[in-house]
Sequence to fold (751 residues):
Amino acid sequence: MWAIVALSAVGGVLSAAEPAGWLPADILWRAGFAALVAGATAKAVRWTWVVLAAVAAAAASGGWLVGAGLVALGLAVGACVPHRRSRPAGALVGAIAVQVLLRIELDGAGASALVAAVAVMPVFVSGYLRSGRQLRRRIRLSLVAGGGLAVVAAAGLAYAGMQSQQQLRDAADEVRDGLDALRNNEPEQAVALLAGASEDFEAARQTLDTWGRPARVVPVLGHQARAVAVVAQEGAALASTAADATVQADIDELRFDDGVLDLELVAGFEAPLAEAYDALAGASEQVAEARTMWLVDPLASAVADFGTEVDRALPDAELAIQGVRLAPALFGGDEPRHYFIAFTQPAESRGLGGFVGNYGELTAIDGDIELTRSGPIRDLIAAPGAAQRTLSGPADYLARYGRFRPAQFLQDLTVSPDGPSVARVMEELYPQAGGQEVDGTIIVDPVALAALMEFTGPIPVTGWDVPLTSDNAADILIRQQYLTFQEDEANRKDFLDEATRETFEALTTGDLPAPRQLADVLGPVVHQGRLIVHSVHDDEQALMERTGLDGALPPVEGDFLSVTTQNGANNKIDVFLGRTVDYRAVWDPATGGVEATATVELHNGAPASGLPDIVIGSSDARDLPPGTNLVYVSLYSALSLTGAEAEEVPIAIESQRERDRWVYSRFVEIPPGGRVTLRFHLQGTVATDQTYRLGYAPQPLVNPDRVRLRVRAAEGWVTTGATGWERTAEGAAGTFEASEDEEFSLEVTPN
Fold:
């Protein structure tokens, strides 16, 4: 019997149960509990064996645990047949059953412990009652002594908690404020806050070590003590490391001086940033382990809040490391780099925003960037061998747009709304048009060019009375140039070429601010898809994707909606184009089925006369009346099309696939001052996890869309939450001006 009890203790040690949350104490508790159950079962009446084994078998979660539970149950039932009770048999039943109970994993806070308590209570009570007087007295004394020690440990932990509570709260606030200061480009304040947090965390840790250590050995209490100790210890280490990294790797030192980036300085930032990331990752792991089901509020909430702040900072730290690792190669540290630049014009719209009017080529050598080539796109279009230019992909780009001959008409390469697709096409065709192999592509529209002038200052341009600035450049380049040069097309194109060239030459020869200031200015145009960067190197392209610079269509994660219009008359009339998109959907969470109607209203505010032909005329073969806007309208959706109308009259629609979603298209003529309304009826299936998700991707045009969205759940479901739009009695709704990608979700529950 004692051999079985000893083996039971060994088996208990090998389990992963954490009654106290401190490994030395957990080993003793696991061994003691397993031995105690085996010994108590040996003394208990036989019907309690059956209860113990039956509960263990029922709670077993598969694998060998089920088999072990059934073996214990079989032994217990079999032991009820003989007239004489066998202590070794009882010990064996208890030893096997307790191994199962120590390893069960049930949902719900404390569910596994509760089941184990129910299973062992009958054998404990019966074993106690069948023990001798002297043993029962020892058991009572042990319980009293253990209870007393637990009370003392709890009192010490409570005192330590009260003494350190304010210190931990102040430290957590300082960490949050310090990380926010880093994001807000305030390194000196960040260092001071993080250093203060480190001191407060360390003071709290010392208090806990003095008064709270005894609680580490007490079940349940040990988890509270461990959690507080982890927060104090990891917080102190994290704050100290983050403060040091802020001093040693001040991102604000990474500036372009006279157009040159110090790549040695960039490389020196990797080590301190990696150390800070390791500290964050370690803290995240330790806090996650400390967040057990045994924690009670307010401690559970405090630990969760600390973990949230740490996890929020992790992606930023990882991105910083990725950036400094790749920067030397991006800026020509290993070998010269060449990048194609496409300057687009949304006054004549294409899927990605506007047609390509001008181009350039950037060369980077050892951190020194230079604009080595630039000109109007017509120079590339007319380059020798135009008829022989070929395009190998992407496959969906060729299938959808190949008929428009993009390899010959390079101004139309931006027909797709997907940035990486367009960039890959440009990178393949530029060498065939007289350029050289490039390492990537940069796509810039007039709004982004105006944002870049925040760094260059005013740009004087020949033929224009006032310099271009960040305030006036977008309007001049999108609208005014066509009015000013309406009788002088050659000078207009020279003006545009000079404006783009002078801006980039100023950027590549002058001083640029720190990365955070760059992000503050350029972030909005990046999010709007007006500044796109692509790399042919996979690791660098992954960085572009993480920062949102890639300009990709967002992935379909449920339902999806986007509308694009493309100018079909080769004029600049889209400065007058206004669009309203109305989307109404009914969603059945039980099946995932969605029935939706998308209504697209197109308004052409152009006059029929009074403006130059380049704005309201038409070079299209249809010989359209002046002021008419011919657009190729496309609706992108995750759903199948069941029908469409224009002005309530059924129409034929072209159906294709692009970037893993459906796209429904048609050419539409909009008379001057007129409106055309298209209605698309859609049907399909999205996820059935009681959450409806809708992604919306706008097109970066001159005038942003006015969007109305409404979704309601099928009868029998109640809305419990909405993200990105307003919750309504039936579902969710929202109206907004679309300039950036939007994500919406709706949560429901059965009524």
Notes: The two ends are 57 Å apart (CA to CA). The longest helix spans residues 133-183. The mean pLDDT is 86.
